[in-house]
């Protein structure tokens, strides 16, 4: 690592950690994930045939749907906040190599989201492990034990943390393109939630399946699936790969525009 | 002041502040001169219309109802139709009818001694001559019906009045598909039979029930306007689709009747059995009857009830396309928040407040502008979705539920109004939080994600989803409810299928309340804080 890159990283880390809002938002994303997951686990009961045919690993991680939105905002603010205050001009004057700035931001966001995603996923799985067996989803009735010793559960939990990292990187890329916090937040959340809605109303099941395969959220969240893997629109790791491709494309577009445009 | 001072400025100076119209015009000028916001509004209208029509234009899934386990019921005509009841709603009118012609005033009395049921274990009807051979004896359907009925004619969709025992909801009087009054509670059995009676007098049919055949209790009466002198009266049995969570399977019910008496029967006419409504879209099985003396055993399948969208796959509501509101909502929220936060970011707010020191007025003017613009955009976007979407769906072989003009207006104007309320809520939250990202996230979290979790995707358990759709600003989506839910019809009444826990205007009221409270709080904060 060159000295320039190390300095850029150090600068980004300093900016990131000294914003009080960031700390609260990060704690909020862990809380949102774990609280929603726990609430869903607690309110789900194996009362009817269909309710019992549920993927409890995925169920215990439901909070990801909400937690990802908070993570996305943190990542958007890491870029848009600088544009809002004019700080970006100072940043680019200090580190004229613009790609290095974006790379440093991406590294900081990755590390921080990982640090947040792991406790969020672990907390959710732990809550499910404690609650779900008491609601009829016990190993005695043929449900898997929600423990990290189970390879599938481990994949789902670790995958959730990776998923959150990729959502953060996608948001960072989009924010670099959009620059404005409002536009970037709207674009990220629209992109995430629009695909599942579209596939829900698509009259054609083949088209609906394709939409699920290319949507960043629908494909990425398949990493949490533990049952019926053969019937998924896309495999767990392939799905995460789709999200990674979205994130890479957004970062690439962001890097390109950051170089081409005046700040 | 010079002689060139305009009348408006004078009026403003006299009042010590600019008139409200002046503030309103200023806010409108600010809005329309930001190109991005105007483009976003055009986009919101385009998304509402485009996604809505796209949703309607997908190729059809098939010509028969599809359940989660595959097709339900026998193949139906590729342009499915359902009878229309006297109230204009789509109904199912399929049952087994053992009837005679009743002329003039008269009555029919019967005793029901048992009601049992069969359901299909795998959700399918086996093909062949005897499709019910694969059926298993199961619990009788809670809303399986066996009793007596007086029909205007034997044509599906005709007006009627019936006294019936049900699988689990006691004796009832039901009429014209949507009417339902409870009678004696309790299940029917040999040890506790139920006596039922219908009395026709001119256009009025009155229903009675009794546990012993001597003490009669009046359950209800209905006025069937235009009832001809000769009507069809008789015994019927029907059994609706069995629902287990989201699995629908056809079912059959069998009932035993005795002590059958019909006064004023047309002389010479005997009891005739007929399966009614077997060609409808509603999956039902052939029925039949056996008579010995005045004892009848009748087997029937189907339902005499209003039908609506649900997991049974019976048709599509034309408002399916209005799910596109969701996309427009995000755009509207972003613009609503920025309409205020942009002023803070650029420092324009200080100029604005210097020009119009009455801060409440500024906020009201902004709310009027953003509300009116989003309402207009929503109207333009939603108006084509229902009429064009409906004909697209029909041309693709879907059954589309009938819709009254008034409901259509409510759906279109309600969607536009919902967008306007969302924009005002966003404006208020933007004023409270003063910075874009947090405010947008808060409003999207309150209104879009709650809708997403509560209605669009079955992520949350039904009970939790219902509360989400009652309490959050997403409750306003109830304004898009198309077909009412009926307590006497089993269906998957979840937001996912377009049934909301609150009535349309009540749900919209909840959203308005959120916007009003947020706007009130924003006004207080705007007045108190330095800009």
- Strand portion of chain B: 15-25%
Rough outline of chain A: globular
Number of helices of chain B: 11
| Structural Rg of chain A | 20 Å
Which structural category do the helix and sheet elements of chain B fall into? alpha+beta
Sketch the major β-sheet of chain B.
8 strands, antiparallel
Low-confidence stretches of chain A: none
Structure description:
- The complex is a heterodimer of chains A (263) and B (531).
- By secondary structure, chain A is mainly α.
- Chain A is built from 12 helices and no strands.
- In chain A, helix 1 crosses helix 7, helix 2 packs parallel to helix 7 and helix 5 crosses helix 6.
- The mean pLDDT of chain A is 88.
- By secondary structure, chain B is of the alpha+beta class.
- Helices cover 37% and strands 23% of the residues of chain B.
- Chain B is built from 11 helices and 21 strands.
- In chain B, strand 7 and strand 8 form a beta hairpin.
- Chain B is elongated, with a radius of gyration of 30 Å.
- Chain B starts with 6 loop residues before the first helix and ends with a helix.
- The N terminus of chain B is likely disordered.
- Classes of the chains: A mainly alpha (263), B alpha+beta (531).
- At the A-B interface, helix 2, helix 3, helix 5 and helix 9 of A face helix 3, helix 4 and helix 9 of B.
Q: What is the element layout, followed by pairings?
A:
The complex is a heterodimer of chains A (263) and B (531).
Chain A: H1 3-17, H2 20-43, H3 49-52, H4 56-60, H5 64-85, H6 87-94, H7 98-131, H8 151-178, H9 181-201, H10 205-214, H11 216-220, H12 236-260
Helix pairs in contact in A: 1-7, 2-5, 2-7, 5-6, 5-7, 5-8, 5-9, 7-8, 8-9, 8-12, 9-10
Chain B: H1 7-15, H2 20-32, H3 35-57, E1 66-67, E2 70-71, E3 91-93, E4 95-103, E5 106-119, E6 136-138, E7 145-151, E8 160-166, E9 171-175, E10 179-182, E11 194-201, E12 204-210, E13 217-223, E14 230-238, E15 242-244, E16 247-249, E17 251-262, E18 272-276, E19 288-292, E20 295-300, E21 304-306, H4 325-346, H5 348-355, H6 359-382, H7 385-395, H8 405-433, H9 436-456, H10 462-471, H11 504-528
Antiparallel strand pairs in B: 1-2, 3-21, 4-14, 4-18, 5-6, 5-11, 5-17, 7-8, 7-14, 8-9, 9-10, 11-12, 12-13, 15-16, 17-20, 19-20
């Amino acid at each position: 690592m060159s000295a320039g890159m190390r300095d850029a990283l150090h600068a980004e880390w300093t900016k990131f950690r000294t914003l009080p809002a960031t700390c609260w938002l990060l704690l909020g994303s862990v809380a949102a994930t774990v609280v929603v997951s726990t609430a869903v686990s607690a309110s789900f009961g194996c009362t009817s045939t269909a309710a019992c045919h549920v993927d409890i690993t995925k169920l215990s991680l439901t909070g990801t749907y909400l937690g990802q939105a908070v993570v996305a905002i943190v990542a958007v603010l890491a870029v848009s906040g600088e544009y809002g205050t004019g700080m970006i001009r100072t940043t680019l004057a200090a580190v004229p190599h613009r790609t290095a700035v974006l790379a440093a931001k991406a590294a900081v966001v990755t590390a921080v989201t990982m640090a947040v995603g792991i406790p969020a996923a672990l907390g959710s799985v732990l809550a499910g492990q404690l609650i779900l067996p008491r609601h009829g989803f016990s190993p005695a009735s043929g449900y898997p034990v929600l423990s990290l010793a189970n390879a599938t559960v481990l994949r789902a939990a670790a995958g959730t943390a990776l998923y959150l990292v990729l959502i953060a990187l996608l948001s960072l890329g989009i924010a670099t393109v959009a620059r404005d916090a409002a536009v970037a937040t709207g674009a990220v959340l629209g992109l995430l939630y629009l695909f599942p809605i579209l596939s829900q109303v698509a009259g054609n099941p083949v088209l609906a399946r394709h939409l699920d395969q290319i949507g960043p959220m629908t494909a990425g969240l398949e990493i949490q699936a533990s049952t019926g893997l053969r019937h998924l629109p896309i495999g767990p790791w392939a799905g995460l790969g789709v999200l990674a491709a979205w994130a890479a494309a957004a970062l690439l577009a962001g890097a390109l525009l950051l170089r081409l445009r005046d700040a | 002041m010079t002689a060139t001072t305009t009348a408006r400025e004078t009026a403003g100076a006299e009042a010590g502040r600019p008139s409200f119209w002046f503030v309103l015009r200023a806010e409108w000028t600010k809005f329309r001169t930001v190109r991005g916001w105007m483009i976003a509004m055009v986009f919101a209208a385009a998304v509402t219309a485009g996604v809505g029509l796209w949703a309607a234009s997908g190729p059809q899934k098939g010509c028969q109802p599809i359940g989660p386990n595959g097709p339900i019921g026998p193949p139906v005509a590729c342009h499915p139709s359902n009878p229309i009841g006297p109230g204009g709603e789509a109904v199912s009118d399929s049952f087994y009818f053992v009837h005679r012609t009743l002329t003039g005033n008269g009555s029919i009395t019967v005793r029901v001694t048992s009601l049992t049921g069969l359901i299909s274990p795998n959700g399918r009807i086996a093909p062949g001559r005897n499709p019910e051979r694969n059926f298993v004896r199961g619990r009788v359907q809670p809303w399986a019906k066996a009793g007596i009925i007086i029909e205007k004619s034997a044509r599906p969709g005709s007006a009627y009045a019936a006294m019936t025992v049900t699988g689990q909801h006691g004796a009832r009087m039901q009429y014209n598909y949507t009417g339902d009054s409870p009678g004696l509670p309790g299940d029917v059995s040999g040890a506790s039979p139920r006596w039922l009676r219908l009395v026709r007098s001119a256009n009025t049919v009155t229903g009675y029930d009794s546990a012993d055949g001597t003490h009669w209790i009046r359950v209800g009466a209905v006025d069937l306007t235009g009832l001809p002198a000769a009507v069809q009266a008789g015994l019927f049995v029907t059994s609706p689709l069995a629902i287990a969570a989201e699995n629908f399977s056809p079912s059959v019910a069998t009932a035993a009747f005795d002590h059958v008496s019909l006064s004023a029967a047309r002389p010479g006419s005997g009891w005739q059995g007929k399966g009614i409504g077997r060609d409808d879209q509603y999956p039902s099985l052939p029925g039949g009857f056996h008579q010995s003396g005045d004892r009848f055993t009748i087997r029937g399948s189907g339902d005499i009830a209003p039908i609506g969208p649900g997991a049974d796959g019976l048709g599509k509501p034309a408002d399916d396309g209005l799910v596109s509101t969701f996309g427009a909502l995000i755009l509207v929220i972003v613009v609503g928040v920025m309409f205020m936060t942009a002023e803070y970011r650029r420092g324009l707010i200080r100029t604005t407040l210097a020009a119009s020191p009455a801060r409440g007025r500024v906020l009201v003017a902004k709310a009027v502008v953003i509300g009116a613009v989003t309402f207009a955009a929503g109207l333009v976007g939603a108006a084509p979705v229902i009429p064009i979407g409906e004909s697209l769906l029909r041309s693709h072989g879907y059954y589309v539920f009938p819709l009254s003009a008034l409901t259509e207006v409510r759906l279109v104007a309600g969607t536009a109004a919902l967008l306007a309320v969302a924009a005002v809520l966003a404006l208020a939250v933007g004023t409270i939080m003063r910075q874009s990202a947090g405010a947008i996230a808060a409003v999207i979290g309150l209104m879009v994600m709650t809708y997403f979790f509560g209605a669009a995707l079955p992520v949350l358990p039904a009970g939790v989803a219902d509360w989400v759709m009652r309490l959050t600003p997403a409750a306003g989506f109830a304004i898009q409810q198309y077909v009412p839910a009926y307590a006497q019809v089993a269906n998957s009444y979840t937001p996912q299928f377009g049934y909301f826990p609150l009535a349309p205007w009540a749900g919209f009221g909840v959203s308005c309340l959120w916007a009003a409270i947020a706007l009130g709080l924003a006004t207080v904060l705007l007045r108190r804080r330095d800009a």
